[in-house]
Amino acid sequence: DAGITQSPRHKVTETGTPVTLRCHQTENHRYMYWYRQDPGHGLRLIHYSYGVKDTDKGEVSDGYSVSRSKTEDFLLTLESATSSQTSVYFCAIRGAERYNEQFFGPGTRLTVL
Amino acid sequence: AQKVTQAQTEISVVEKEDVTLDCVYETRDTTYYLFWYKQPPSGELVFLIRRNSFDEQNEISGRYSWNFQKSTSSFNFTITASQVVDSAVYFCALSEARNNDMRFGAGTRLTVKP
After folding, report:
1. Which residue among A76, B38, B83, B89 is least packed, with the fewest CB closer than 10 Å?
2. CA pair distance B61, A28, nearest whole angstrom
3. What is the number of other CB atoms lying within 10 angstroms of the CB of residue B16?
């Protein structure tokens, strides 16, 4: 158990509304990641963070922003949700830093109507 | 660019059969790490194994074994004497040492029938 929680676990929202997903970790890991999982694509990286206030874009960052004001929290925001952002979102932490070994939270299922 | 291909979208076997899940990767880096994750029907992602590019030894853990071959850029996963509880989606992933991200294959859905 890597001590990662995600909230909410499920959310249904409407197109055009802002949405924020939260990832919380209890073990002081420096690196945190947000992925989305879609059928046929596996997991794709949205954004990641390598420290407080230090973030970088991933493969599918358009339409998403992130913030990390505390080590333990990494927030993912959809400024104006679209139906194409309907997905399952996973947060991860890097355990063994040298090897980029990642451990995942339980996931958030987001539906944008 | 790093890329992972899992050509098998779905595999169905009967309990006690052996099954191999294929993973082929592409990278220009000489130092990289390969991973397998399991996603059971409950949805969580479970870390199974990490392999470093400089260590080509195969690994066995109970009924699970992994065959890493740099010559063919493959990192295949074999389940011996499969069980119903092995039913899941399995993901292969690659991380280059110089990068902070991880690339996943599309996953292979394994169904083990009783």
Report:
1. B83
2. 30
3. 11
pLDDT tens digit at each of 114 positions of chain B: 789 999 999 999 999 999 999 999 999 999 999 999 999 999 999 999 999 999 888 888 899 999 999 999 999 999 999 999 999 999 999 999 888 789 999 999 999 999
A46, A76 contact by CB (below 8 A): yes
A48 contacts A76 by C-beta, under 8 angstroms:
no
Which of A43, A44, A99 is closest, CB to CB, to B52?
A99
